[in-house]
Automatic annotation (TrEMBL):
Principal cellular location given in the protein's record: membrane
Region annotated Disordered, chain positions: 1-33
Protein name: DUF1232 domain-containing protein
Stretches assigned to the DUF1232 domain: 92-128
Keyword entries, A-Z: Membrane, Transmembrane, Transmembrane helix
InterPro entries: DUF1232
Length: 161
């Protein structure tokens, strides 16, 4: 999976269609349970290669459309950078890709168009993956996500309190 630079991200975001269709470190039991749940959800759209392709094709379009509407947008973009980092271990990439693929999926456990509750299942998948990968998510991944939102200021990212 390619790692676009900041300029490339802005270009991908500009060209992206508006349609979204295109555990704490050290707690091994919790991490395994969370990864199992994430993989179950992500399994709805196929194997790792299918999920990776799905994320590549649909990620920036979904970000463009929903980043200002969900309180976990920073985590989504951070997971993307973790998943696309060549230094990230394959197992961690698979977990991140699975959660991102589920987030992109327009029809899931609770369809995204359902007011208020539509992103609850997506938030669960993303935040479980984020927590499970806390030891793999680097400062660089977080900084790149922050840079992305700084460059794309038209996204009014919701801040959780």
């Amino acid at each position: 999976m390619e790692r676009p630079d900041q300029e490339g991200q802005a270009e991908e975001l500009r060209d992206a269609p508006d349609s979204a269709e295109q555990p704490a470190a050290g707690n091994v039991e919790a991490e395994q349970l969370e990864e199992k749940d994430i993989q179950k959800w992500a399994g709805k759209i196929g194997d790792y290669n299918q999920q990776e392709k799905y994320v590549q094709e649909g990620f920036w379009g979904k970000v463009k459309r929903y980043a200002s509407k969900v309180p976990f947008a920073r985590e989504v973009v951070t997971l993307y950078y973790c998943a696309t980092d060549p230094a990230t271990p394959m197992k961690a990439k698979a977990t991140a890709i699975g959660a991102l693929a589920y987030w992109i999926l327009p029809i899931d456990l609770i369809p995204d168009f359902v007011p208020v509750a539509g992103f609850a299942d997506d938030a669960t998948a993303v935040l479980l993956a984020y927590k499970a990968l806390s030891s793999q998510i680097t400062d660089e991944h977080r900084e790149r996500a922050e840079q992305f939102f700084a460059i794309n200021r038209d996204f009014k990212v919701i801040t959780r309190t």
